[in-house]
Amino acid sequence: MSGAARRRAYLQAMGIQAWRRRDGESPAADETARDAAPAAAGDPVAGEGGVADAGQVQIPAAPETGMPQTAAPEGRADARPTPVEPPAQPAHGGRPAAPAPAPSVPAAIDVGDLGWDALQAAVARCTACELHATRTQTVFGTGNRNADWMIVGEAPGADEDRLGEPFVGRAGQLLNNMLRAIGLQREQVYIANVVKCRPPNNRNPHVDEISRCLGYLQRQVELVRPRLILVVGRVAAHGLLKVDTPLGKLRGQVYRFCDIPVVVTYHPAYLLRTPRDKAKSWDDLRFARRVAEGREGGGGPA
Ligand code: SF4
Questions:
Q1: C-beta 155 within 6 A of ligand 1
Q2: Is residue 131 in contact with ligand 1, taking CB distance under 6 Å?
Q3: Measured between alpha carbons, how far is 238 from 234 in angstroms, rounded to an integer?
Q4: β-strands 190-193, 149-153: how paired?
């Protein structure tokens, strides 16, 4: 299948009907999406994995100019991460990241060398931040524990809190479609959030809550050791990478978390509300796939 055909298939899987001009020319990217109804107040997606913030993602005004150049591929390192990492820098030496947050941010929970069962049990009984008081249950993570791809969102929403699984509901279905478009089934990847308990009223998790909870995600990354971490959404990206750069400027770069390559894209819930950006997410996924395969940015087989 040609690249244009794959792009059309992706956009159709994302719910976008790409149109064709009668003279046979291909439509431009921004000429496709007009399918989704505007998000109404009380949008049912609003409880799904952080949509409360999704509309606040800042989109760069400048047109895209393609993905930036990245460093030569390299293997995964075995070194364990320190509990708190310095602010992320693009692995290929691109734009410098913003300064780290204030030093008053609490350190991540150190879960040592816990295995999967002990780690999940530790999360289930955790009371390290105020989110424990309002949760129905913790949402640990799900999927293939030997996955090549790890998907990281921000926090459980109402459905996730009820079901105990990340990325369910409409946003989860869209994530599944996005993954399928690049040849991955949901069961093949590992999916987790930067915080394991639902913030009340779907507010964004606070910086201190993310910082406390990040130790659990670090240990999950250590145990999975994926080839790539795909971070979806601004809040997750800022929490994981310790930057405050607008999401649009984080796209197309390779960062590192626990020495694993990280690529950033839009949250599916945001894409449900802003379908014009679905085409950009296709670019991000193709870029992520190249990184995971070791063709860009230092990802690839161990
Ligand atoms: S969000 Fe994380 S740190 Fe806070 S109580 Fe839940 S598991 Fe513990």
A1: no
A2: yes
A3: 6
A4: parallel
Residue 90 CA to residue 84 CA, distance in Å, equals: 18
Nearest in space to 8 (alpha carbons), one of 31, 16, 281, 64: 16
**Is there an atom of ligand 1 within 6 Å of 129 CB?**
yes
* 195 CA: nearest ligand 1 atom: 1
For every one of its 302 residues, what pLDDT tens digit does the chain have, with 9 covering 90 and above? Answer: 666 777 776 767 666 655 444 444 333 332 222 223 333 333 333 333 333 333 332 323 333 333 333 332 333 333 333 333 445 556 543 444 444 444 566 777 889 899 999 999 999 999 999 999 999 999 999 999 999 999 999 999 999 999 999 999 999 999 999 999 999 999 999 999 999 999 999 899 999 999 999 999 999 999 999 999 999 999 999 999 999 999 999 999 999 999 999 999 999 999 999 999 999 999 999 999 999 999 887 655 44
Domain 74-292 in CATH 3.40.470.10? The answer is: yes
What does the block give as tokens for 134? Answer: 């309002």
Is the CB–ligand 1 distance for residue 111 below 6 Å?
no
Closest atom of ligand 1 to CA, residue 155 = 1
- Determine the distance separating the centroid of ligand 1 and the alpha carbon of 133, expressed in angstroms: 10
> What's the rounded Cα separation, in Å, for the pair 160 and 48?
7
The CB of 240 under 6 Å from ligand 1? The reply is no
